[in-house]
Automatic annotation (TrEMBL):
This is Cadherin-10. The keyword Cytoplasm does not apply. GO terms for molecular function: beta-catenin binding; cadherin binding; calcium ion binding. It is a single-pass type I membrane protein. It comes from Phoxinus phoxinus (Eurasian minnow).
Length: 776
């Protein structure tokens, strides 16, 4: 490598020197196409480019080339100046000799060329001896970069059973070296790991299969190492590697197989339809949709009794019950079951067949079963009004087990809340407990229970009882008819069409006959023979003043057996009509019209009378209120108000207006009543003398107030209670009034307050304290 670089350096130096000084020969001229003489201007120097190897490994600065001008006489007056890319940093020039050097190692991958400009300048005057000229320094490449892949690891897949040369994927590496120079960037691909299963094309990097019919079930994953080497793969070239993880994709090349040729299952005879008997499984080495299977029953004596479905999740065949099983009838069944792939690849049919068969034997086990009715449901018919105790029919049930047990019959009373039916517990005969009415209910649905006496197992069966119709209802009017006849009606005029209904339902349909119970001089009836009839007038000239309504009894009969009939009453009102027969007024309203008063006029008169009465009542109430103002100011309950008086008193010193001493309660002195809320500490003497018991003034005052309230018309309408009590009644402190106090405060003694209990402690401290201060 060092020898090649030295040889290339010598070659580049020779090229640089030969191109650095290309001198023109003076005096040479040429002719153009027109014969004119062309003269070339003489230049002192010119050059094109220099070449420099990258990654210089020598000592010192790397020599690039030498610049020299014809104006340089080598007397030291010429200075060379270098400008452009990297001048002064990457490249420097000796201003006296014109030698150019590179100051550091260069990398072509960072920059492939530098454009610079050089000129010769007079050192003394600083003037340019020649104008500047550009030149290029090109960096020559060496093989210093190894190939690199875009990824370190690639993931690829290829179908199993592929032929040799099947495309897997393409990997590509890049080299930062110069592709135009030598073989530094010419890559060759090779496989280091993964043979003999895969191969790679040297020029393109395409990975292909190298072995035919690789089977995923044998090996699914492969790891292949690809190498990219420059210098066209020659010795000494640089290389890079990448790993490719290759997975074989599954194809349907493996048929499903049962692990056993025969399977044994069992199920109880009580298994419900649709319930699972068991599962059988087949194995397929493929995966995904290639391993999906479908189970079917080919033949066998249980083909009509059992079914098989495919569980899409577990890929198992689930055998289910298709018909009700009976241990006493058949105990063993055989099935031939087939399993088949649902997705078959036609390319691999020669590896088939892609199906397998197995035998399944199912044993039915015995279960103690409940009684079994002879029919799934029973329907009985009975005539309505059949006497109680009449037989309707018989239900029958048996024990299906080998050992027959006795069966008892009962009616589920939740289905016969009215207790209309009864059943014989031994033979299952159903009878009526009451007479049935078809018009009330046409059908009765009950449930009959059959119970084994030994095991208490039960079975229920529905029983439908139809009540047949008997002609026991008479026809009647289909609706309520409001019939009227005009006063000016003519004889033979239609006034009403009537129809009838019958709750019975005869087999041939209803046929009603209409007639009048007696001959009527005013009206007649005509049967239309279509279950309707017309009411006609026999005469004209009806007068509502003489008779405002007529009662017409109509007899309606049916045609069933026995014949039923009824008499319905039709009320015909007499009304006033216009000339076209339109009703204007009838009955009471018509009589009012004859008096000349209409309904509107009567309403107006009644309203006026009512308003006048309200005005009179209001006026009387206002006059009574002005006469005397009530004591109760508020309209609320008297118990929540304070009765106030407007008379101002003279205060405590006013002893002339009223003797307050008459209000003193004499019972306080005579009776020593103690408080019930506290325990008295001691009994103390009363300090005042008893007043006169016969207080006539107080009694007269109270009676006067009572009489005044009873006779007051403005008093509230509810009872009121005014309470008058003697001051100090019921209190240990008696009266606190100062009207009868001593003349001076010094005559009073308050020592007794300390014996009244904790309720009067504050008061005792105040007065006893003041007395002690006064004495001091």
């Amino acid at each position: 490598m060092i020898i090649n670089q030295v040889t290339f350096l010598l070659l580049s130096c020779l090229l640089g020197w030969s191109s650095a000084l290309i001198r023109p020969v003076p005096g040479i001229s040429t002719l153009d196409r027109d014969g004119r003489t062309l003269h070339r201007t003489k230049r002192g120097w010119m050059w094109n480019s220099f070449f420099l190897l990258e990654e210089w490994t020598g000592t010192g600065k790397q020599y690039v080339g030498k610049l020299h001008s014809d104006m340089d006489t080598e007397d030291g007056h010429v200075k060379y100046v270098l400008t452009g890319d990297g001048a002064g940093t990457v490249f420097e020039i000796d201003e006296n000799s014109g030698d150019i050097h590179a100051t550091r190692r260069l990398d072509r991958e960072e920059r492939a060329s530098y454009t610079l400009s050089a000129k010769a300048v007079n050192k003394t005057s600083g003037q340019d001896l020649e104008r500047a000229s550009e030149f290029i320094i090109k960096i020559h490449d060496i093989n210093d970069n190894e190939p690199k892949f875009a990824k370190d690891t690639y993931v690829a897949s290829v179908s199993e059973m592929s032929n040799v040369g099947a495309f897997v994927m393409r990997v590509t590496a890049t080299d930062a070296d110069d592709e135009a120079y030598g073989n530094s960037a010419k890559l060759v691909y090779s496989i280091l790991q993964g043979q003999p299963y895969f191969s790679v094309e040297p020029e393109t990097g395409i990975i292909k299969t190298a072995l035919p019919n690789m089977i995923r079930e044998n090996r699914e994953h492969y790891q292949v190492v690809i190498q990219a080497k420059d210098m066209a793969g020659q010795m000494g070239g640089l290389s890079g590697t990448a790993t490719v993880n290759i997975t074989l994709m599954d194809v349907n090349n493996s048929p499903p197989r049962f692990p056993h040729s025969t399977y044994h299952l069992s199920t109880p005879e009580s298994a419900e339809i649709g319930s699972s008997v068991g599962r059988i499984k087949a194995y397929d080495a493929d995966v995904g949709e290639n391993a999906e299977m479908w189970f079917t029953i080919l033949d066998g004596d249980g083909q009509d009794v059992f079914n098989i479905i495919t569980d899409g999740t577990s890929q198992e065949g689930v055998i289910t019950v298709k018909k009700q099983l009976d241990y006493e009838s058949k105990r063993l069944y055989s099935l031939r079951v087939q399993v088949t792939n649902t997705h078959i690849d036609r390319r691999f049919e020669h590896l088939g067949p892609f199906s397998d068969t197995a035998m399944v034997r199912i044993t039915v086990t015995d279960v103690d079963e409940p009684p079994l009715f002879s029919r799934a449901l029973y329907i009985f018919e009975v005539d309505e009004d059949t006497p109680a105790g009449s037989s309707l029919g018989t239900v029958s049930a048996r024990d299906p087990d080998i050992i027959n047990h006795l069966v008892k019959y009962t009616i589920d009373r939740h289905t016969d809340l009215e207790r209309l039916f009864n059943i014989d517990s031994n033979n299952g005969t159903i009878s009526t407990l009451q007479a049935l009415d078809r018009e009330t209910s046409k059908w009765h649905n009950i449930s009959v229970l059959a119970t084994e006496l030994s095991t208490a197992l039960q079975t229920r069966v529905p029983v439908f009882i139809k009540v047949r119709d008997v002609n026991d209802n008479a026809p009647e009017f289909a609706m309520f008819y409001e019939t009227f006849v005009c006063e000016n009606v003519r004889a033979g005029q239609l006034i009403q069409t009537i129809s009838a209904v019958d709750t019975d339902e005869p087999l041939v349909g209803h046929k009603f006959v209409f007639s009048l119970s007696t001959i009527n001089p005013n009206f007649t009836i005509y049967d239309n023979e279509d279950n309707t009839a017309r009411i006609l007038t026999r005469r004209g000239g009806f007068n509502r003043r003489e008779m405002n309504s007529y009662v017409l009894p109509v007899v309606i009969s049916d045609n069933d057996y026995p014949i039923q009939s009824s008499t319905s009453t039709l009320t015909v009102r007499v009304c006033a009509c216009d000339s076209r027969g339109n009703v204007q007024t009838c009955s009471t309203e018509a009589l009012l019209l004859s008096a000349g008063l209409s309904t509107g006029a009567l309403v107006a008169i009644l309203l006026c009378i009512l308003i006048l009465l309200m005005i009179v009542v209001l006026f009387a109430a206002l006059r009574r209120q002005k006469k005397k103002e009530p004591l109760i100011i508020s309209k609320e309950d008297v118990r929540d108000n304070v009765v106030s008086y407007n008379d101002e008193g003279g205060g405590e010193e006013d002893t002339q207006a009223f003797d307050i001493g008459t209000l003193r309660n004499p019972e306080v002195i005579d009776t020593n009543k103690l408080r019930r809320d506290i325990m008295p500490e001691m009994l103390f003497p009363f300090r005042r003398t008893s007043p006169i018991k016969d207080n006539t003034d107080v009694r007269d005052f109270i009676n006067g107030r009572l009489q005044e309230n009873d006779s007051d018309p403005t008093a509230p309408p509810y009872d009121s209670l005014a309470t008058y009590a003697y001051e100090g009644n019921g209190s240990l402190a008696e009266s606190l009034s100062s009207l009868e106090s001593a003349a001076t405060e010094g005559d009073q003694e308050f020592e007794y307050l300390s014996h009244w209990g904790p309720q009067f402690k504050k008061l005792a401290d105040m007065y006893i304290g003041q007395e002690s201060q006064r004495e001091t």
